[in-house]
């Protein structure tokens, strides 16, 4: 089976097998990772090792701290701005797709002066505009970008920077797959694990150390519970409340696999190659790509055929070849094929070949 789910996403075969083998007696003491106390020395060691491998794979410099938070990325849409800005302060947001839009909705409900500096709704989210043209107030506390827009299939070819204005990056579908994070300009990165580096249940927050310290004061005015405060989670070494131990274990195994496979540089290279294979088929005729070519996603390939009937036929034919989970998102329609780190090169080339054969037969 070749499985192209937009997330939760495929794990590499060897990671799946490793997790299966280790599941029931994970630490050699007859106890599974699902049962182990998060205060045991075995879990503490797993947690520390996962921190270390995360820092290596995500290429995080000493200026930033890493913490693991239970739950998904969406939980952080309203929590992130409460760590970096106080009521009444200015912040800048971009609406580049479904998830970016939800992040905007959450922040517009807060007592902040929110500047929407790019509104992708005006072009039906087919492009990301030109970031250099955006009018961002100089005293903005940060600007929020969604690096890869999973639903519409757009991604910044390089992550833009805006002088002294710190970046906040939703990298849910791009962390561990891109090497160009401009750390010096970055206040905070957040991502849930289930696309490129693990399974659902845990999110990673990477925050500039100085801003993490400053957030101790800022959060006092922002009505945040302790369990949602990044500094409290950091102080408790990511075990403030019972952590999602199984998700952290799976993330550990996936991060180690990434590391042994050449790290994020190799993942980035493979993503670019997989994307090239699929986009060359899209551009060869019959298929209609959804986005502008200058901001095509490296992970989510969104296209359609001339009619909805043909879309459905394509999806049904693909299923006969065990090419699964390629239906477009409900508000977009058409086809979306997602290839994150766990989707191997062979699956990408099998899919590209299927597209070629289908075009020859029905195009
Ligand atoms: N941000 C982006 C870019 C996403 O693609 C998604 C989910 O697909 C989310 C946020 C929401 O993630 P979660 O389901 O972990 O809350």
Automatic annotation (TrEMBL):
Recorded GO CC terms: cytoplasm
UniProt xrefs under SUPFAM superfamilies: PLP-dependent transferases
Cofactor binding: number and manner: Binds 1 pyridoxal phosphate per subunit.
Residues given in the record as pyridoxal 5'-phosphate binding sites: 99, 150, 170, 194, 241-242
Sites of N6-(pyridoxal phosphate)lysine modification: 195
Family, similarity comment: Belongs to the class-V pyridoxal-phosphate-dependent aminotransferase family. SerC subfamily.
Binding partners and assembly: Homodimer.
Designated name of the protein: Phosphoserine aminotransferase
Species this chain originates from: Silvanigrella aquatica
